[in-house]
Amino acid sequence: MDFRRIQLLLIGFFILFDIYLALLLINRVDIQSISIVDNPNLTITQQLQERGISIVPHIEEEIKELPLMKAAYTTTLKDQMGQLKDQEASYDETTKVLSAQFTQPINLNKAVSGETTVLSQDQEQAIGEVLANEDWFIHGDEYQHFIYLPQSRLVIVRKTVDDEYPIVGNTAEIHLLLNENYDIESYTQSYLDGFHTLAETYPVITAREALTIQDKRIDTMLPNDSTIERLVLGYALFYSLDQYQIYSPVWHISYSRRDGVEGVVTIDARRGEVVYPATTINQE
């Protein structure tokens, strides 16, 4: 056996594997556009500003305590889908998401236009009135937290906990896709009902601490000259059990890069960790 040849092949393999891993990292994070500001005398916001990163939302300093929330599974969308009119609708049993295409676009009466970047209160009210139409949407009036993505012409409306904390992660959202005339062409909807507070509350990290955690990881660090568009304290799916789901407080950080690409980083507000896809476990 030619051990020398085998040794060379192994060395070549590991070199190629290292190159492959490096390319994966470069594709995930634009290394060329990141410069590390390692100055302990600067706050996280100052460090971000040093890298040309602007922060649109106000950074709250209030320290809060929030509970875990429990929500039972529901078949509301599937059961009530037959009441919908002026649309072709279908329900995905796996994702629990209803998808619908309107036979004719729903006119928003110019509530949104090409100049719209952030929805005003009047625009939110106009869209909310459309969502409240029971012929077109199932319990659409229960969705109260609005986000608009102008590049995609997409309006996202989320249900909230205690009329304050939006539920992120597309388990209680309506996504309205607008056409070139800024009328509603189609939508998807997910739904939760019967939220219950679990007794114990936990201290949650502040927005500033969430930004610090996000900026310490190479896979979530923002490229230079990005813009943090939204910084929202809400709830996201934590565990899925057989009978119900557990939701935990999170910081939802939405940003746009200078090339127009948009992204989201979610931070567990109790544990102070970056959130990856929710864990599914079986209930005994």
UniProtKB/TrEMBL annotation:
What UniProt keywords apply to this chain's record, in alphabetical order?
A: Membrane, Transmembrane, Transmembrane helix
List GO terms (cellular component aspect): membrane
The Regulatory protein YycH-like domain sits at 33-265
Which parts pass through the membrane?
Answer: 6-26
Q: Which domain of life is it from?
A: Bacteria
Q: Which Pfam families does the record cross-reference, listed alphabetically?
A: YycI
Quote the protein name from its UniProt record: Regulatory protein YycH-like domain-containing protein
Origin organism is Dolosicoccus paucivorans
